[in-house]
Design a protein that fits this description.
CATH topology: Rossmann fold
Shape: globular
Helix content: 25-40%
CATH class: Alpha Beta
Radius of gyration: 18 Å
Structural class: alpha/beta
Order of helices and strands: EEEHEEEHHHHEHEHEEH
Number of strands: 10
Distance between the termini: 34 Å
Largest sheet: 6 strands, mixed
CATH architecture: 3-Layer(aba) Sandwich
Oligomer: single chain
Number of helices: 8
Strand content: 25-35%
Strand order of the largest sheet: 6-7-8-3-9-10
Length: about 250
Amino acid sequence: MSSDVLIAARHIDLRYIGTDGVHVDALKDLNYAIGHGEFVSFIGPSGCGKTTLLKLMSGLISPSGGEVCFKGKRILGPPSGIGMAFQDALLLPWRNVIDNVLLPVEIIRRPNGGDRDKARDLLASVGLDGFEKSASWQLSGGMRQRVSLCRALIRDPEILLLDEPFAALDAFTREDLWRVLENLRLKTSCTMVLITHQLNEAVYLSDRILVLSRRPGRIVHEEKIVAPFPRPANFAYTPEFGEHLENTRQRIEH
């Protein structure tokens, strides 16, 4: 495996038993490789196994066949160096903003002054300077997701897994958080993997888009987004953006 590859899947199969007792093939002979510093999005029809992919990468589940490797070693359980952000921000209502960000540190050890300074810096980088002591219920949906991103990054993960983190937000808030995510990528140099149903989101943010087929999921197309990073504000209105959007759309099985 190339030293430039951070996480990779080789001949992944995933089978489970459905509620009716019948075996279901969720993924079949799935292969991919993601390099250091890349932003890769997975898209595909509903039920094709996108979220299952993230669970395999995070070590929450194991494949029925094949292997997923992180830094050249087979994933046998949740590895250190991987952070996750979900569709629901999942903030603890009895903790204020900065204490929610520090939760992953607190699980390992008692946070120190340096950890709190780092949490404040992350919050400032996503536009939440001054909200450290706010309760989670005082925040808008977009602000809650910013806190969730900071929490996922507080332990300096090498790879950030994003499971449709902006799906429940309105279009304006979602596009604002695209730029927040770009800034975080520049600040941290973190590799990012996104699951999304939003084609324009995938094209705007990604270096590559990997399209999954219907179940059992396998990769049927790779779309490389050739555009400078960070993306210019008008990128979504350019002919190049439209071409990438249409190329990808045509490969998705409806």
